[in-house]
Amino acid sequence: TTHTLTNPKDNGKSSSGHRVSVLVPLPFPGPLDYLSHEALSPGELVAVPLGKREVVGCVWEATTHLPPDFQRPVGKTVPLSRLRTIGHKLEVQPLPPSLRHFIDWVAAYTLTPPGLVLAMAMRVHLGDTPKPALGWVRTQKPEEKIRITPSRRAVLDAASHIPMTTSDLAEASSTSSAVVRGLATAGLLEQVVISASSPFHPPNPDYGTPRLSEEQEEVSKKLTNLVEAHHFDVLLLEGVTGSGKTEVYFEAIAACLRQQKQVLVLLPEIALSTQWTDRFARRFGVEPAIWHSDLGAKRRRETWHAVAKGEAQVVVGARSALFLPFETLGLIIVDEEHESAFKQEEGVMYHGRDMAIVRGRLVNAPVILVSATPSLETLANVESGRYQHELLTSRHGGATMPSVSLVDMKENSPERGFFLSPKLCTAIDETLANGEQAMLFLNRRGYAPLTLCRACGYRAQCPNCSAWLVEHRARGVLTCHHCGHIERIPKECPQCHAENSLVPIGPGIERITEEAKQRFLDAKILVMSSDTLASPSATAEAIRQIADEEVNLIIGTQIVAKGWHFPKLTLVGVVDADLGLGGGDLRAAERTVQLLHQVAGRAGRAAHAGQVYLQSYVGEHPVMKALIANDFQSFMEQEAAQRRPSFWPPYGRLAALIISAATAEAADALAKEIALYAPEREGVQILGPAPAPLAVLRGRHRRRLLLRTMRGIAVQPILRDWLKDIKVKGTTKIEIDIDPISF
Ligand code: ADP
Ligand code: ZN
C-alpha cells in the first residue's frame, strides 16, 4: 500500500505538489499521506482514493499538540512520487481547529484510532453545501436608451422585485435564457441570492424572561459572570429537584446568546426531551436545534451545516453533539451530569460529561454541570477546588421536598405472587380519591425477570448470554435484554416436559400493571417504558395525557425518573428499592441513590406536598437511610471514605480490559497471557482476570482485567506499553474501557 503515517519532519513541499496528511474515518493509527496539486489547509474536507473506493477525509495537522503521554506513533514516510493524489475538495465549512484538536484528544484518551473518532464528527452524509440559488430582479435603470424587443418586453413584464431563477424567468416569459442574460448585460436585471429560509431561527434572549427568586437570582448572576468571563472554567449547579436549575441555567444561555456565541446543552436522553424543548421555546421564542442519533438524514445534514455556519445558536443533544463543528462555542451545559447514560459503552468508549469538560477547555469556554445528586467524581473536583459550586436549596414557589418513608417488606409483604404492599396500596387509594396522581416505579421491563419450572427447577436462560430470559407476556415471548434473543413462551417445560409447570418469578412493570388493574379498579392507568413509548410523539402524547389529567396512575421504568414536571403528581411508590443494589458493583449504591432520588423528586412539585414510599427488604441499608433522611451529603461522604483508601475512582484512575473470544478456553488463555505481562510498578495495581460482569454476551466469552493507578499516574501509556506485544488471534478481541462506569 502507498499509505503511511505522517512524518512530522517532512514539510511536504515539492515542485511537483504538496504532501498533505488526511485523516479518514477508518481505523488507521493516524492520518494518511496524499499528494495535492493545490495548497490545502487543515480542516478542509476532501475526497481521497483508498484502495478501490473513494472516501471523504479531513486535512489534518501532521503533528498534534497533545501531552507527551498521548502522542501517537509516527510511521515511516513514503516518497512523494509514490503517493496517490487527492480527489476533489468539498465545498463545505472546514472542521474548526478546536474540533480537530478535540478529536485527537478523545482518540488519545480512549486509546482509539483517531479516524474512528473523526467518524463520529462526520456521521452525516456531507457532500457539498448546496450552492445558494441566484435569481434576477429588475433594476432601477430606465428603459429609454435600450432597445426593447417583444421578447425583452415579456421578460421585463415577468420580472419583479421578487428574485426568479434564469429558467423560471425564461419560462414565465416564454423566451430563452439568452434574452434574460442580454437584459442583465444591458443593466435592466441584476442577480441576487435567493435566501433559503434557514429552519434555525435565532433564539431571543429577552423573549420570556422569568421572575427569579432571590436565591435563583443570585446563582443566575454567578452563571452569567462565568459566561461573560469568556474562558474555561467548570461550575457545578447543584439544587434539589424542582428548585429551578433549568430556569437558572437558561439565564446563562441568554447571556451567551447576547455575546453572539453558540451554546451546547447535553441531556442524557434527548428522545425524552419534549418538555425541555417546550420550556426552551417559552423562554427564547423558538425551538433549539436538536441533535441525536435518530435524526433523519436531511435534518442531520441541515443541522450540521447550520452549526458550522453559526446559524444554529443553541443545540440540545445527546453526547454525540460534542462532535459538531461549532463555529464559536461559548458555553456547554451538561444536565443530569451524574447519569450513566452519558457513557458510551461500545465503539469509542467515552464519557459525555468528561469529554464535555475537555471540549470546553479546548475552546476555552465555561462548562456548567447540573444535578440534584452530583456524581462522586464531580463532588471530588468541587472539594479539591477545581470546580466552582453553586447551590439552590429550596423548591420553587414554596413547594416542599417530598417526605420519603420506608415500607419494610419483611413486615408489610403482600400475598404470594403480588408485589404492592398494603401500606402502599392504601396510600394510592387516598391519593386517587383526592383527585391527585400517583406513580409506581420499577426499573424492569416486561412481565417477569425469570421463568422457572416448578417440577424440575429449570430456568429459562439466554442461549447467547449469561442472563435469564425476561417474559414479555403481552407479546407472548421470552426475550434477552442483552442480545435481543427472542422465543415464544413455551407451553411445557423444555427440560422435563411437564405441562403448566412454568411460573414467572418476580415482577416487571407488565406484571405490576396487571396487579394495579385488579387492585385499583377506577384508576386510569398509563404505562411508560421504552416498550410503550417507542417514538418521541408517543412520549409527547403520554406527557399530554398526564398534564390534562386523563390518567391518574402512572406505571413506569426509569423513563419516569427523567426531569419531568407533573404538578398533580403527589405520590411515588418505588416497587423494589433494592433492585439496583445486587451484583457486586462498587458503584451500585451511588447509582441507586441517584436514581431513586430522581424518581422521588417527581412527587409534590407544585401546590400539594409529595410522598414517597420505598418498598425494601433492607431498610437499614445506607441507601435507604440517605433517601429517607434526604441526606445525600453524608451518604456521599461515606462512599468517598470507602473508595479513597484503595484508590477507587475518583481517587485513583481505572481502566478495564475486556477480553472476549468464541470459547471460554480461548478467552481464559488470552486473559492469562495478558496477566503474565502485567506491569509491575509502584502505584499501579492489576485486578483479575475474572469473568466480566456479563461472562457470556452474544455468544462471546468475556474476561476482565482492571488496571488501577494512583491519581497522578496516567493509564494510557501503561496500557500501550503493556499490550504492544500481545498478539490477538482469530476472533479473540481486547477492548479497552478507560474510566469504566461499573467496577
Ligand atoms: P429543576 O430543574 O431544579 O428540577 P425546574 O427548573 O424544572 O427545576 O423548575 C421546577 C418548576 O418550577 C418548573 O415548572 C419551572 O418552570 C418552575 N420554576 C422554577 N423557577 C421559576 C421561576 N423563577 N419562575 C417561574 N417558574 C419557575
Ligand atoms: Zn442474550
Automatic annotation (TrEMBL):
Molecular function as annotated in GO: 3'-5' DNA helicase activity; ATP binding; ATP hydrolysis activity; DNA binding; zinc ion binding
Keyword set includes Zinc: yes
A Pfam family annotated for this UniProt entry: DEAD
Cofactor(s) demanded: Zn(2+)
Record's cofactor remark: Binds 2 zinc ions per subunit.
SMART domains: DEXDc (SM00487), HELICc (SM00490)
Binding positions (Zn(2+) 1): C453, C456, C493, C496
One cellular-component annotation, GO: primosome complex
Residues holding Zn(2+) 2: C462, C465, C480, C483
Enzyme class: isomerase
Catalytic activity: Couples ATP hydrolysis with the unwinding of duplex DNA by translocating in the 3'-5' direction; ATP + H2O = ADP + phosphate + H(+)
Keyword terms: ATP-binding, DNA replication, DNA-binding, Helicase, Hydrolase, Isomerase, Metal-binding, Nucleotide-binding, Primosome, Zinc
CDD domains xref list: DEXHc_priA
Biological process (GO), any one: DNA replication, synthesis of primer
Enzyme Commission number, as recorded: 5.6.2.4
Domain Helicase ATP-binding as annotated: residue spans: 226-392
Assembly: Component of the replication restart primosome.
Chain's role: Initiates the restart of stalled replication forks, which reloads the replicative helicase on sites other than the origin of replication. Recognizes and binds to abandoned replication forks and remodels them to uncover a helicase loading site. Promotes assembly of the primosome at these replication forks.
Family listed: Belongs to the helicase family. PriA subfamily.
Protein's UniProt name: Replication restart protein PriA
